Each structure stands twice: as C-alpha cells, then as structure tokens.
Amino acid sequence: MSWKIIERKRTLLAGESGPGRGKSGGRLSCCLVYPNRYHSAMSNLGFQAVYGMLNAQPEVSCDRAYLPDRDELEELQRTRGTLLSLESQRPLSSFDLIAFSISFESDYLNLPTIFRLAGIEPYAAQRSPLQPLVVAGGAALFLNPEPVAPFLDLVCIGEAEPTLPPLLELLKRGAPSREELLRDAAQLPGIYVPSLYQPEYEGVRQVAFIPSPGAPPRVRRVWDPDPESRPTVTEIHTDATEFSGMHLVEISRGCPRACRFCAAGFIYLPYRTRSPELVRQEVLEGVAQGRKVGLVAAAVSDYAGIGELCCDIVAAGGRFSVSSFRIDHLDGRMIEALKASGQKSVALAPEGGSQRLRDLVKKGIDEEQILAACDMLVSHDILNLKLYFIIGLPTETGEDLEELVALVQKIRERVLAAAKENRRLGEIQLSVNPFIPKPFTPFQWCAMEPVKSLEKKWKFLQKELGRLSNLKLQMESPREAFQQALLSRGDRRLAELMVLADRLGSWKEALRGWELDAEALVNREIAPEELLPWDFIDGGDVERLRREYRKALDENVGG
Fold first, then answer.
1. Based on CB atoms within 10 Å of each CB, which residue in 97, 265, 393, 439 is the most buried?
2. Degrees, nearest 5: CA angle 29-33-34
C-alpha cells in the first residue's frame, strides 16, 4: 500500500482525542464504514455513538473506514491498492463484519464505490462465505432500505442501542453456515434479512413482497426504551469536522410535533428526553475540557428546563450552541445565555412560505409568531438569521410564493433596523429546499414536483429577493433533490442503477440507460392503498398517516 495513504491515516489518528478510540483484538472484528468523507463521518453524532457502542461490547474490536477523499482515491487507482481501515490499516475484506452507518439516502450511491475499492462483490448473493458479513443501519435504513437491500446481508431497522447487542452476541456464537446465521438473525427484533424476501413488480409499482418460510411477514422497528442507558455524545474529537472544538450532547430523541412532511417526527417515536441531571453532567464535562457545547435535538427549545441548563453552562464559564429552535417555543433565559455565549447566528424554520402551507404541513405557527421570534432574537443582538423554507409542497401556488417573499422582506426589515441601531451588520440567509416525499410520513404518497417547475419557482425567488442587500439565497439543486426522492421511495431495482453509475462514473448516463422511468417513480401521486417498498417495516400507525394525508389534502382542495 502507498506510504502516502498510510501517512494520511496516521495524521488523521494523531489529530484525534477522546475516550472513544477503538481497541485491538477481539473475537469479532468489525469495520464501521461511513459512506462519505472523513469530515462528514466525524461530524455525524450517530456514527460516533455506534463506534463507541461497538467497541464497548466484550470481544468485539472495531475500526473505522470512509469514502476516500480525491487525493487518496487517485492514489488507490494509481497503485491499484485496496481500501484500508483507519486504525489498523487493514483491508476491509479481512474483517469478520462490515457495518455501514447511513444517515442520508444520497450516500447510498457511494456503496458500490466502497465495495469496488475494497475488492468485495457489491451484491450479497454473489459474495463468498469467506468474505465479510455486511450489515447496515442508520436513519436512511429506518425509512427505506430497499434501494440498497441487494448489497446487504443484514439491516438494523431501528435504533442501535436495542438492536446491536443481541445481533453481536449471535455473530460471536456463529452458526454452521451463513444461511443458518441469517435465518437466526431474522428472528431478532429489528433485524431485516433481505435475502429472505422476494419482491414482485408490475411496471414502476411493487405489487408483492413474499417472505421465505420462517421469516417474519413484517420487521418491527425497535427503539431504545431507556434514554438513560448510554449517553450519546462526541466520542472522538478532531479538528477535521464541521464541529471543530465542540462537544456534542444529545438531549432528546425524536420530535413531538409530527409535521406532515418530516420523517424525524415519526421514525423516532416515541419522543424521549434525557434527564436534566445526566445532561448537565455531560455538558459540564465538555466545559471542563474547554470545548464549546453543542446541544443536539430535533427541537432543543422543547426540552424542559432548557433555559436553566443554558444558564448553568454560561455560569460554569462555558459556551454553547443549539442545533435547532422552535419558533413558537423560544425560552427567554436560553436566548440570554446564547447572547452571553457569544452566539451571533440562529436558524429558524418557517418551512411554508404562506399560512395556508404552514397549516398544510401542520407546522402549528403563524406569521405573528414568526415575527415575534425574530423580534426576540434581534433584540438580544442576534442579527444573523438563517431561514429554512420548502418549495414544491403539495397544492403550492404562485400566491404562496408571493407570501414567502413578503414574509422574508418583513423579517429583513427587522434585522436591518436592529443592525442600524446597534451599528453593526446583520444578515439573513435564506435556505430553500424542494419538497421530497419521505417514507413513514403522511406525505409519503405525494408526488414530488417536476424539476423544471421547481427551477422556475427558484428563478422567481431570485428575481424577487436575489438583489436585496443583507440577504443571501441558497437552494438545494432540484436535480439532486430528484435523485434523493428516487432513492427515498425506490425499490431494489435501484441497486443495479447504482452499480452501473459507479462503473460509468456518471449517474446521469446510468439513468439514461435504466430500464425504469425514474420520473414516473418520483413525480407520481401514489394511491394510499398501494403497496409501498417499505411496507414490510412495522414502523407505526399507518392508519394515522392515511388520516393525516387525507385531512391535509381535504382542507386544501381549493389550494
């Protein structure tokens, strides 16, 4: 192997610190793979938590691996080398278990590349029993694992805390054959074995999903009933991350709001919070290390006692930031503490540009509350606001976009007035994202708006807002959003498309030669009674989703 690659890995390891570093030896060797760059992986709290969990298991040793950066990739191709793990610089093919942690559907595309670089067959059915067993988990798999199911031996449907220990015990015991091992694994809560199920299709639709004898008809999503069982905090600190110098602490899991477009409000049910005593202990450890504390939750401001917690951090001489605010639930003490902590920027998510659309998605806020939240923030000298909006929501019209523009202008006026009074600059960043129908939400049956229509709406926003001072516009590419939607609601036939894209080096070319009509998959309304690729997951109250879907559309028929 090239000395450049070895030296690069040693440099990364030398820049790390923390209690979560792996251990050598163990009956079961595992390589935890994040299918994106090192920087993205180490910025992901879920990946770090699973790494810590694996190495805490008796007789299990765990390394990490990532998608190589451009320089390493070129060096691998030049030397015809193989992908190595970070800690021990071992080939991935030498481990007993390869475990993928996948939070985002777009990272599905990198799996064939990683298999190719590791010298491992991408399709599970073609791999030798001598090659590693391949398992995957993470939020993307909770939603819909089918696009990558042909690559995987096992999938964890649910949170790692309850799924990993029994699975690892089974793998340590072993079985006479891989087939028997997989059949045993299928009996564990939250473990899905793709090879034990056979889908059937008619055109773009999936019409059947047939389990093998002995396999459960549905796989139940599992969740951790004890949020105190293990802290979810930064295990390894490194400067090569989005959160350099920060100690991240998860304070709650899930979201109590259940906005109709948002998967987090459904796949992490029930909503759970961690005790103030344990959270306080963990954040003060971060302060003692001289690090800024990052409070992580889908809705930080919904956490009971958040104001007191933030004041405690500041009183201890620490600084903190938060991952998200709820516009209708801002805590005055938290805002004061943020100001004292030196926070200059805050993100707010109105999501819908008009009141009608905010009601459609069940956001539960009105314009008066949005403006009041902005007033509270700018009055505390927090003058940089990031606003998140979604375009292309079901029933959206030109009038809704005009209301979005008017709302942004009202917020901008408040920021400019406060900035002038305080004699310093304030800025609004407007982040616009196309609506993507997500599994296990009431909008899972909705169509995504066509790319050309989204591009037209983006041009309207640029025309109306793009030239305003102190305002920056950014939008996720509609074509990338289309790709994400295809991966979100697709079936197993996408695996072939991904392998082809890796071989050709072009997703666009692969899509051109694919047997299915991608636009028909993404841009069509799905009947609520139609079988969905992810329906084998017992993940909650489907009737509730149908009720919410029908209620949303019935109330907005005239939209």
1. 393
2. 160
